[in-house]
Amino acid sequence: MPIVGSDSLRRSVCEKWEKAWTKRALMGLVLGQFVSLLITSTGFSSSELARRGVNAPTSQSFLNYLLLAIFYGAFVIRRKRPLQISWYYYLVLAVIDVEANVIVVKAYQYTSLTSVMLLDCWSIPCVILFTWVFLKTKYGFRKFAGVAICVAGLIMVVFSDVHASDRAEGGPNPVKGDIFVIAGSTLYAVSNVGEEFVVKKADRVELMAMLGAFGAVVSAIQISILERSELKDIKWTAGAVLPFLGFALAMFLFYSTVPVILKICGATLLNLSLLTSDMWAVLIRIFAYHQKVDWMYFIAFAAVAVGLVIYSAQRKKDEEGAQVTEASDERQKEKDEEAVVLDNLTRGSIAAVEGQRSEDVKQRPSITSLPK
Fold first, then answer.
1. What is the pTM of this model?
2. Residue burial 245-265, b: 16+ Cβ < 10 Å; e: rest
3. H/E/C letters for each residue in the chain?
4. CB 3.0-4.6 Å disulfide test: which of 20, 127, 155, 236 passes with 189?
């Protein structure tokens, strides 16, 4: 006997699903999981280098910035177009980003891979605060509920690192490592919000080129001052070179994908998506390092997953409003580019006319008045 109203119930469920999970939300989740896997691979590389006694956090990031500068810089030079945002904004953003990478990589010397991954959720309340204050982003109750559940995992991880019985396996000084991760996550939040502002005002290629160029310069200066002795002491075997190269390649792909997510969904969803890398971090810790994982890690991961789903679901009118805003920004950017081109053409035409007039004056025969 068929259930009464089953068709209407099914249609109702489908309509609610389509309203909550729009194409924008699903695309953001898919790309978020891709960069989450990349972050997991960078964490694995950093943990492996720390296990081998390699302590050169700035050097690990230098190759990534150099790749960004070379790859995206070629497109910027080829376009022969002036920067859409002043260069000193990119310099400040590069300094913040470099130091955030250095601090977080340094944390692997003191705490476990899983703790570093889970404590990254501290950047989420920082991103919400910064986007609300500077970018005027509006958040509803559902967004705050999802973030609150994710941050609950942060408290569990800190408590576990302080009181777990397997603390020795987590690193020589887990609490110090946790402090480093929280400080680095705060800088990551500043960097992500700055990148979201730039990518919506300028474009992704310019952002990556300038961030890579200034990041490489800042990293090179810092390496020459702080890490020369560490680089000399490293034995460049395959076990040390491969994690270095793997870290640089994963970071290059990560940096190339992040601006796309920032433009689609914003910095908050990006940071929430990165928290799912904890699942991969736990698997690496269990199967690669044969370490015991405290039971609170699994509760923390469950909280992160639930919070991510709650935050990602959005109403249809929010999606339509985001699309209208994006289309308006694109039209404004096209108008600005057309204005620049028209201005250059006008200046060129004026210069050509003035040049032609001067040539005519030069070629015109001079008339000498004869004396009477």
1. 0.70
2. ebbbbbbbbbbbbbbbbbbbb
3. CCCCCHHHHHHHHHHHHHHHCCHHHHHHHHHHHHHHHHHHHHHHHHHHHHHCCCCCHHHHHHHHHHHHHHHHHHHHHHHCCCCCCCHHHHHHHHHHHHHHHHHHHHHCCCCCHHHHHHHHHHHHHHHHHHHHHHCCCCCCHHHHHHHHHHHHHHHHHHHHHHHCCCHHHHCCCHHHHHHHHHHHHHHHHHHHHHHHHHHHHCCHHHHHHHHHHHHHHHHHHHHHHHCHHHHHHCCCCHHHHHHHHHHHHHHHHHHHHHHHHHHHCCHHHHHHHHCCHHHHHHHHHHHCCCCCCCHHHHHHHHHHHHHHHHHHCCCHHHHHHHHHHHHHHHHHHHHHHHHHHHHHHHHHHHHHHHHHHHHHHHHCCCCCCCCC
4. 127
Query: What gap in Å lies between CA 96 and CA 189, rounded to an integer?
Result: 10
CA dihedral in degrees (79, 85, 86, 88; nearest 10)?
A: -110
What does the longest C-alpha to C-alpha distance in the chain come to? 126
Number of residues in the chain: 372
Angle at which helices 174-201 and 123-134 cross, to 10° = 30
pLDDT category, 51, cuts 50, 70, 90? confident
What's the pLDDT at 235? 85
Structure tokens at 209: 């080129």
Neighbours of 329 (CB within 10 A): 13
- pLDDT at residue 312, as a whole number: 67
Q: Token match 């998506």: residue?
A: 273
pLDDT on residue 87: 92
Q: What does the alpha-carbon distance between residue 276 and residue 265 come to, in Å, rounded to a whole number?
A: 17
